Amino acid sequence: MANRFFISMEEGLQEPEWISRVEPYMNLVINEIGYDDEEVSIMFCSDPFIQSLNKQYREIDNPTDVLSFENGEEYTDEDGEKWFSAGDIIISLDTLPKNAEYFGVSENDELKRLLLHGLLHLNGYDHGDEHVESGIEPKDEMLALQEKTLKKFAEYKII
């Protein structure tokens, strides 16, 4: 089976040189966690852009690192193939380095976490109020799966 990823940038932002390495990573992790025939849109943006979405959809007037918008619709494309439109992942490139510094990880590791985190949300996972904390093993199913999967792909380089 296959999965499709549509990767874009907020209008006016320069595309990072590493953007072509996002889709191969996403294919690895989506296969690892066992999802097939999914279609996922990933957009990289600025803090003001994600803040406007956060305010509009979550009533939180602050930027955030990642937002996920589930779609959950199945459709058949022009070739007769069935797809599951999982939804959209939005990631702030302004918050990415701030998070990396806060968590004491590389920007590469933080980007992989944000991408996987968004993907898990699109597939029905939720972590409630629990968040990843350095040195503490997560109890939540979503965060435990996230951390286990990240360890498996620790050597993978996007950035």
Quickly list its features.
single chain, 159 residues, 23% strand
Indicate the topology.
Elements lengths: L3 E6 L12 H11 L5 E8 L1 H12 L7 E11 L5 E11 L2 H9 L3 H16 L18 H12 L7
Parallel strand pairs: 1-2, 2-4
Antiparallel strand pairs: 3-4
Helix pairs in contact: 1-4, 3-4, 4-5
User: How do the SSEs run, as a string of H and E?
Assistant: EHEHEEHHH
Read across the widest sheet, the strand sequence of neighbours is: 1-2-4-3
Kindly state the percentage of residues in helix.
25-40%
Q: Tell how many strands the DSSP assignment holds.
A: 4
Shape annotation: globular
Report the sheet with the most strands, covering strand number, pairing sense and barrel closure. Answer: 4 strands, mixed
Radius of gyration: 15 Å
Q: Total number of helical segments?
A: 5
Low-pLDDT residue intervals, each spanning 5 or more residues: none
Task: Please provide a written account of the structure.
The protein has about 160 residues and is of the alpha/beta class. Helices cover about 40% and strands about 25% of the residues. It is built from 5 helices and 4 strands. The chain has a 4-stranded mixed beta sheet, with helices on both faces. Strand 3 (about 65-75) and strand 4 (about 80-90) form a beta hairpin. Helix 1 (about 20-30) crosses helix 4 and helix 3 (about 95-105) crosses helix 4. The protein is globular. The mean pLDDT is about 90.
